[in-house]
Amino acid sequence: MAVAGPRTLNLVRQNQASIQHVCSRASSWWSGVEMGPPDAILGVTEAFKRDTNPKKMNLGVGAYRDDNGKPFVLPSVRKAEELIVSQKLDKEYLPISGSAEFCKHAITLALGSDSPVIADGLNVTVQGISGTGALRIGSTFLSKFFPGAKNVWLPAPTWGNHVPIFKHVNMDVKQYRYYDPKTCGFDFSGAMEDISKIPKGSLIMLHACAHNPTGVDPKAEQWDEMSKVIKERELLPFFDMAYQGFASGDVAKDAYAVRKFLADGHKICLSQSFSKNMGLYGERAGAFTIVCNDKDEAARVLSQVKILIRPLYSNPPLHGARIVSTILSNPELNSIWLKDVKGMADRIINMRTKLKENLAKEGSIRDWSHITDQIGMFCFTGMTPDQVEKLTKRIFCVPDKGWTYLSCWYCFQ
Amino acid sequence: MATSRFADIQQAPPIEVFHVMKAFSDSTHEKKVNLSVGAYRTDEAKPWVLPVVRKVEAELAADMTLNHEYLPILGLESFSTAAAKMLLGATHPAITEGRMTSVQVLSGTGGLRIAAEFLHRILKYNTFYFSTPTWGNHRLIFTQAGFTDVKQYRYWDGKTKGLDFDGMIEDLQNAPENSVVILHACAHNPTGVDPTQDQWKKIADVMEERKLFPLFDSAYQGFASGDLDKDAWAVRLFAERGFEMIATQSFSKNFGLYNERIGNLMIIVKDPSVIIPMRSQITLLVRGSYSNPPSHGARIVSRVLNDEALFGEWKECIKIMSGRIIEMRKGLQERLEKLGTPGTWNHITAQIGMFSFTGLSAEQSKYLAEKYHIYLLSSGRINMCGLTTGNIDYVAEAINDAVCNVKA
User: What is the pLDDT of residues A332-343, one digit of tens each?
Assistant: First the structure.
């Protein structure tokens, strides 16, 4: 289809009324609907599916794969599902805020069972449609009630979907430095410099662990420093925690930043996803939390959050949340789960190590230590778009910017 | 204590139906009756998980080939294709000519929200109409999606306890072009009053003439009359008339899958070539809202709709549910007429579906709650499913008392 040039478009615009009149009989409501841009990541999977090469690999999509390259249903999840079916529970509507049991277990996992925030009832925790849904509840609430400027400061780069989640609610997005392409690591001084210049009282988004897409996380001491400057700037930290347990294999370790910020007195927002750490991708289990000043404020905030959820989808889906709370509330299932998630994290860490070793064995003289320094599912390899294209043509499907998904790497003997 | 950013946030007004449900829940009276919630109840006043649903769930849990991978952004295709066929009929020209597209959504509410966002953001429509009264969430969904021109069309006639058809037609005739008109496909919520087939034809005439955009909210297909085709009659009429239109389908009631949030958003167009760009835009709306829909409910409905034997079992279930409701309607009307309760009560059996606008006033409703621990909405809306053979006498007597002794 030929693309209309500017002159043609102008003519069309000028004569719109008469054109519309002529076309009115055959006109459709939809004729002005433009094609939306394709999704970069899903486009890679499409290409992978079309590829007939037997050695093809998909290093694009963000879902865990086992050592045979297959999706993995966690043993703890299977057991929980059997248990749920045997209980023959009803299918009544959940409250708008979701399953209270699920919310309690989710926030306890995030903050620890000894959290004073939970003990004092300061958290408003509601069920969300996985991480995206939780973020959207957050962005919707903040767009309405956040007293500061309606902007969110995101790390550069960040998960692509952060942008539309905020833009859909008419918030602006800004960036602070995060990834250093020279070191393939964390640009700590750049981040600190930018954060210290963020206007006071603004909203800042932070990846709690296993930064997506770079795999680059601040060290504990660096988090401590960031907490101080964020406090000085009076910013509201919004943590996106999609990989608790899945990053290091240790749920407490992966929650370090979230817990430290709370201990330092920040009143945070938090979104949690159980897609990766429980392999519940398609069941959409997630939670959104705001930490409030006191119980009374928490009650008022909850009432407003519910008003925002109702016209989105009324109340959330239960199945995934039920699996999560069954696991987290049952000591036996919980300990099986902790092994399951450590197993996934260990396999990824193992693949990182092997990849780095094999690159050296292949004769690469480049410094590949960032592969093992980075953490979680994703790795910013440092490859250029040209190099990515070469790889894609040979065997692999890798998204444009050179990041690759680690758990899809087979274990080469 | 440090000042909080959120210190000025006010308590939001409570949503009535949840408030009333809580009042029922808190009540310890042994004869309490819940006539407020919008979910099916058995004759034992219990929730009912359809046997065919339990069967399929057990199969899914035992199926080791299944995993929990992400669905596509627009959901499970086998589900949405089957759902659309259920609504339009498998051989409908819109389907055979490739002019229909449908996507999985978060039940009825989710479908309405995505539809509203698409209509407002992409097509730039800003005027929407809903019936007086309508389901409480319609207004909120559309205004949150960005519509600012909020209009209503007359619907409920308090005098006849039926449809104010002339009022409705007049209001639609005065509607500006491109207004989105929310229509209840069947079993109007909250009144239970549906237009007759002739009335639907006239409504279609006016909407065609005034170039209004039909948006059908189909939450009760099969659940209203027990007959899937009958309950889809109005939607099919509009499709046959050549309207470009949207229908949202909920499987909460007819499958009893309330908490799995399974629904379908169906769009019919004139020109198939617009479907791809349209789907790409809806994709963006979904991605920024929840990325992709939940898998479980879709799998259940897809399995049932696509398997002849299971489909047959399910049709029996909807006959059971709709049959019990119709029986309770008959029973209540008979008892009120036998008691000589002032007024006419044939509207109870003329109305259809889960809900009935009894005609009781807010004062009378309050009286029923306080004296009899019978909980209904202040609009006089009752959920027929709250009635059982065990409590129908009690409720009839209470209504009789309220109508006789409490001023409307």
Answer: 999 999 999 999
> In whole angstroms, what separates CA A109 from the centre of its chain?
17
Q: What is the pairing mode between strands A378-380 and A403-405? A: antiparallel
Of chain B, the end-to-end C-alpha distance in Å amounts to 51
Q: Is the peptide bond before A213 cis (omega within 30 degrees of 0)?
A: yes
The one-letter amino acid at B28: T
CB environment A39-70: b (16+ within 10 A), e (fewer)? bebbebbeebeebeeeebbbbbbbbbbeeeee
Q: Indicate whether A28 pLDDT > 70.
A: no
CA distance A383 to A385: 7
Q: Are B188 and B223 in contact (CB under 8 A)?
A: no
B48, B171, B194, B253: the catalytic one is B253
- Domains with residue ranges and CATH for chain A: 42-73+343-408 (3.90.1150.10), 76-332 (3.40.640.10)
Task: Match 């496909």 to its residue by tokens.
Answer: B185
Who's near A257: CB < 8 A, 6+ residues apart?
A206, A208, A209, A218, A223, A239
Nearest to A294 by CA among A147, A141, A121: A121
Buried b (16+ CB within 10 A) or exposed e, A339-370: ebbbebbebbbebbebbbeeeeeeeeeeebeb
Please name the residue ranges forming H helices in A198-285: 220-232, 251-254, 256-263
CB contact under 8 A, A88 and B73: no
User: Is the entire prediction scored with pTM above 0.95?
Assistant: no
Smallest Cβ distance to B259: which of A63, A88, A317?
A317
Q: Which helix (H) or strand (E) holds A129?
A: strand A123-129
ipTM topping 0.90:
yes
List the Cα angle A226/A228/A233 in 5-degree steps: 95
Q: Where are the alpha helices (DSSP H) in B175-274?
A: 197-209, 228-231, 233-240
Q: Which of A284, A292, A294, A303 is the mutation pick for testing B, counting most B CBs within 10 A?
A: A284
Catalytic residue among B164, B171, B194, B217: B217
Closest CA to A101 of A310, A285, A311: A285
- Residue A179 token pair: 């990834």
Residue A222: half-sphere exposure toward Cβ, Cα within 13 Å: 17
| Interatomic CA distance for residues A354 and B149, integer angstroms | 61
Per-residue pLDDT tens over the stretch A183-236: 999 999 999 999 999 999 999 999 999 999 999 999 999 999 999 999 999 999
Helix (H) or strand (E) holding B289: none
Helices marked H in B127-220:
137-144, 165-173, 197-209
Q: Are strands B213-218 and B127-132 parallel, antiparallel or unpaired?
A: unpaired
Cβ(B190)–Cβ(B38) under 8 Å? no
Model confidence band, residue A399 (pLDDT cutoffs 50, 70, 90)? low
What's the CA gap between A229 and A250, in Å, rounded? Answer: 27
Residue B156 among the catalytic residues = no
Give the SS3 label for residue A287: strand
Interatomic CA distance for residues B231 and B222, integer angstroms: 6
Chain B CA closest to residue A279: B68
